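Exam revision sheet. Question 4 asks you to relate a sequence to its structure. Input first:
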Amino acid sequence: MSTTDTTGRTAAAEGDGPAGTAGGRRGLLHGLPWLVWRRHRALLRTALLVTVAGCAAFAYQRIGVQDFLHTHGTAPGLDGRLVTSFQSKYGAMFESDIALMQGLPVLIGIFLGAPLVAGEQEHGTVKLVTTQSVSRSRWIAATLGLPLAVAVLCTTLLSAVFTWLWTPAHALIATGDWLAGGPFDSTGPVPVAMTLLLTSCGIALGMLIKRVVPAMAATAVLAMVGSVLWAEQIRPRLGTLRSVSYPYDSDNGPRLPFDAVRMDDWVSTADGKLYGFGTCVHSDAAEACRAKLGIVNRVTQYFDYGQLAGMQWRGAALLLALTAVVLAFVVWRTQRRPL
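Answer key, structure tokens:
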């Protein structure tokens, strides 16, 4: 019969096991990291396999997308034929890819983060840990370090390959709305930072609730509330809006870059004072109303595609700062409070 202690050795492993062999051979993982891997190996292996499969699928999809773009071009025309043709062929594919990339941080937070410490508390194994010679600092470092490292590796690879797939066709996907249409949260550093934050929040909630299923439910609720706050209050404020003005009575709309995201419309005076777009529209004497206020222009505010990378890195920095705060709380509570 073999037994396992917190150093990752088994009785059988004293002479032949993963932590060491009779010949002194040591694996990549040993000690506490090996124990953490053993306890969560099914989920971690699944994450690595999904990553490999996802990267292979994105790379395969890029072959077809590049062939289409090489034949038809990348800039959508005014008649919309190119967008319609691209959407009919690849629209559903990109919708599925974006949904996967957006859902990945939530799934990792629920199924990896929430049970990580809560499972140990619920089954009482954490009490065994605290009675061993291993310090709480070493235990929490190994418990958090390996799963978070795997989460970062998987999301970094998936995000990098999906960004490689999406970038050449960005103006043709999600009607070109890279901000609210999903690409902002699915490419660049955002998926990685979002995964770290939700996983850390899942760990903290699990530590406080001490039950796996309620902790998973709480993480799911937090993710939903957080996604609304992120979309409505934070994401549109990560960059500075650009403006274009044109005469109020002009028959032509604003000439925006084809890959810009239109955010808001106003009316303005000659010196740039803004009024709401509906100002004077419903007045019986609309022209007299506009003349009284001095309204002579229409103004459209937008984000240019060139702002995307800067906005994503600012958002990722904010998410990583919140992650650091949550992890500091987890470490503090591990050392100062009963587990």
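Marking note for examiners. The CA atoms of residues 115 and 192 lie 20 Å apart.
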